[in-house]
Write a structure and sequence with these properties.
Blueprint (H helix, E strand, L loop, with lengths): L2 E6 L3 H4 L6 H20 L3 E6 L8 H4 L23 E5 L10 H7 L4 E7 L1 H14 L3 E10 L3 H14 L3 E3 L1 H9 L1
Parallel strand pairs: 1-2, 1-4, 2-3, 4-5, 5-6
Helix pairs in contact: 2-7, 5-6
Length: 180
């Protein structure tokens, strides 16, 4: 396995801002543990970050949020990227759409994406689908992903397992596997 750790949309608007969510706030420590271990193991850490502009179609559904250049689009301080981490701005649910993500993963010789972040049933799910379509193996960390509603989170995990062949691990299960 040649993994990359992907942190999906852990930006101010989705953690404590406009769409602030206690379920997302609860996963911050687990994502931090995974980031620290990834750095120790020299696993690439990639942040996908909503960075919308006025013409983005998504705004018609959700209203203004995570606007490029605004504080709401910034990664939360608790998960601040380090200098060798990667940050990819995205304008839709998937970080693969019209970004350099796939080229970056291929250039890093990654074959497995480890997905964390929010929202499990929207952005995490769409990144899982696009990773699957591009031939990557997928691991989703169940206690380092969250949705607005726990039932949506569980439904999305089940879907990714059944339809994208994703492996579903807890934070500690992945940490143990990294120690093998």
């Amino acid at each position: 396995m040649r993994p990359a750790l992907i942190i999906v949309d852990m930006v101010v608007d989705f953690v404590t801002g406009k769409f602030g969510n206690p379920y997302v706030q609860e996963i911050v420590p687990n994502i931090k543990l995974l980031i620290d271990k990834a750095h120790e193991k020299k696993v690439p850490v990639i942040y996908l970050r909503d960075a919308h502009t006025e013409e983005d179609k998504e705004l018609s559904l959700w209203g203004k949020h995570a606007m490029d250049g605004d504080k709401g689009s910034e990664i939360i301080p608790e998960l601040a990227p380090q200098k060798d981490d990667y940050i990819i701005k995205k304008k839709v649910y998937s970080g693969f759409y019209k970004t350099e993500l796939e080229d970056l993963l291929r250039g890093l010789n990654v074959d497995t994406v480890i997905l964390t972040g929010t929202s499990t049933h929207i952005c995490v799910l769409h990144n899982s689908a696009d990773a699957f379509f591009r031939g990557f193996d997928i691991i989703v960390i169940s206690d380092a992903t969250a949705s607005f509603v726990p039932e949506e989170h569980e439904r999305a995990l089940k879907y990714m397992k059944e339809i994208h062949n994703a492996k579903i691990y807890t934070t500690y299960e992945l940490l143990e596997r990294w120690e093998e």
